[in-house]
Amino acid sequence: MNTQPIEELKGIGEKTGKLFRKLGIETVADLLQYYPRDYDAFEEPLPIGQLKENRVNAVAGVLVKPADLLRFNGLMMVSVSLKDLTGSLQLAWYHMPYMRTNLKTGTPYIFRGRVVRKRGRLVMEQPEVYTPESFQQLVHSLQPIYSQTRGLGNKAIAKAVSQALEVRKLEREYMPKEFRTKYQLAEYNFAIEHIHYPKDQQELLFARKRLVFDEFFLFLIGVRRLKEKRADQKSSFPMKPSQEADALKASLPYHLTDAQERTWSEVRADLGGGLAMNRLIQGDVGSGKTIIAILALLEAASNGYQGALMVPTEVLAKQHYESIVQLFTEHEIAKVPILVTGSMTAKEKRLAYEKIRSHEADIIIGTHALIQEKVEYDKLALVITDEQHRFGVGQREALGAKSGGETPHVLVMSATPIPRTLAIILYGDLDISVIDQLPSNRLPIKNCVVGTDYRKNAYSFMAKQIAQGRQAYVICPMVEESEMIEAENVLDYTKTLKKELPSEITVEYLHGKMKGKEKNQIMERFAAGEIQVLVSTTVIEVGVNVPNATVMMIENAERFGLAQLHQLRGRVGRGKHQSYCIMVNCAEDGDTSERLDILNRSNDGFYIASQDLKLRGPGDIFGMRQSGELEFKLADIFTDANLLKTVSEEVNRLLDDDPELEQEEHLELKRHLDQYLQNRYEKLNL
Which tens digits make up the pLDDT trace of 163-176? Predict the structure, then answer.
């Protein structure tokens, strides 16, 4: 393993090292596994008449006169005109006065940049400048584009990766030869190098296939081992049907749907069946999974045990805690819920721990603090994790280990609409219940897919909704402006909205790079109605319930997977008011329109996921990945569905034949697997 610290690479000091750590990169190995999120394809230069607007193009030319330096409204611009037999093009560099002296007349250049039309003229803005020889070396190549952070741009990351590839220790091949031959898999070290710097699309797909195969392979061996460990595991916590749970269900102001009733029957049968429950509840956003969780927690408490509910964010933990307290108070249920989060003071934690240890608390609600903090339980019989994909298999196991060595019942809830065939593979250690009906009192969300010219109308519509007391989300794919990727970003968009919307409307932003405390404050203020418009990245995909939010506007909708768009849309439509989802399509191709039209036509997450599976081909790996929530850095369960099924069959065959991986040809795989599992557990602080 290339475990040397990132600072050992040339040019990376303490300051730059901190920026890399913000991206989760601490070692050379981390850097090599920090895969590009997209690629920049260098094409041959075009004649000016064939340049495509709103796209990055290259054009060859010789300057016949020196560039001009223009100043207006505080803006400094170097401008020069380029002509050929097919037309003319203005080249413009902003705030780069040195370009005027750098560019020599009579010298041949290749200019490459985005071409736009301004006042009827074609303009190439901020073009990069190459000699014909240096450009020729890049033609037909794919240059990596990485996710970045402020102060650490794409060039710096790419340079560090190039250096890491030069100094790395080569890894021993661990994938058994039978699989490499059968599936034509690249050698591991080759794959790592060429995922960063592929010669062409074919080489990229070859490298990617190997790394995706590995991700699925190691993950599924872990799942299979967990399944075998849990098979026919006797339960130390048998439960009888609770009258309190029956009374609560009967007195709810609504009837459970048939799907909810069926799921509750399955959960209840597991709790009383003598074996440890390991069940996944898959239910679309808003399908009513939470009430099933509350009934199960009450069933455990009524049988004299404790139950824990673990959720991804502190704000959601508080919301669940408050709604359970309110529900128990209204229905005079004498069971005690308690909240445990990382941001509580030392004194608050100490008091909470004491109540949990002494069984004064029956139901414990919290974030990953439930496993990472020094919590001791008394008879922890039921563990429920909400949005399971945010917690790995290892974290579920760790919470189970808090039961004093006894195996608790495990219930996992997910709103990610994964087709059943894939869910059975990915959650192979769990039984599956599906809630495939929405409560009858839910108003379907009204959807529309629009172009960029609709933005002003959208802002006006948003302002009208806010005037009626509602709130809105705006989602952008980027946190900040990128030198490589043309997409809306949270920081600039927030400034734009503050100008466009009436001054009395409070607009704030939220993104994953903010400190946990800041994120919590923003989400709490939004939940309390103090913020009317929240501009955010996909960090809000899970984690807060705001029934008053009725507008979801998603910028660059074409850059998101359909399942992710559906998850984002599910943040609205949670209250009694009509809700709306506006998807802004910034691309102009027909394929994108066809994909987004599926969302426009349907609010059914399972239908959307199955349609997305049909539309996405094996080469569709650019832009935003869809299923990054499932522990994979590169693999996408939708794009790579066929490979996932293949790997699942091979894992089963391998472990049936050699369960402990003791055969000589599997020893290197066993060593790598042990290292992989150890690294994951260390990252989870277990």
Answer: 999 999 999 999 99
